[in-house]
Amino acid sequence: MRNGHSQVKAKGKGAWALGALACSLAMPVWAQQALTVEALQKRLEALERRVGGSAVAAEGEAVEPGLGDLDQRLRILERRLELQQEEQVAKAKEAAVVTVNDKGASLKSANGDYEIKLRGLVQGDARFYLDGVPAGTNDTFLLRTARPTLEGSLGKLVAFRLTPEFAGDSASIVDAYVDLRFNPAYTLRVGKFTSPVGLERLQSSAALSEIERALPSELAPNRDIGVQLQGEFANSEVSYAIGVFNGAVDGRDAATTNPDNDFEYAGRLFFEPFKNDANALSGLGFGIGGSIGDKHGSGNNFLPRYRTPGQLQFFGYLSTVLADGQQTRFSPEGYYYRGGFGLLAEYIVSKQAVRVGAVREDISNKAWQTTASYVLTGEDTGYRGVLKPSRPFAPGKNGGWGAFELVGRYSVLEVDEAAFPLFANPSTSANQANSWTLGVNWYLNSNLKLVVNYLHTSFEGGAAAGADRESEKALFSRLQVAF
Question: pLDDT tens digits for 68-84?
Answer without folding.
Answer: 666 677 777 778 778 88
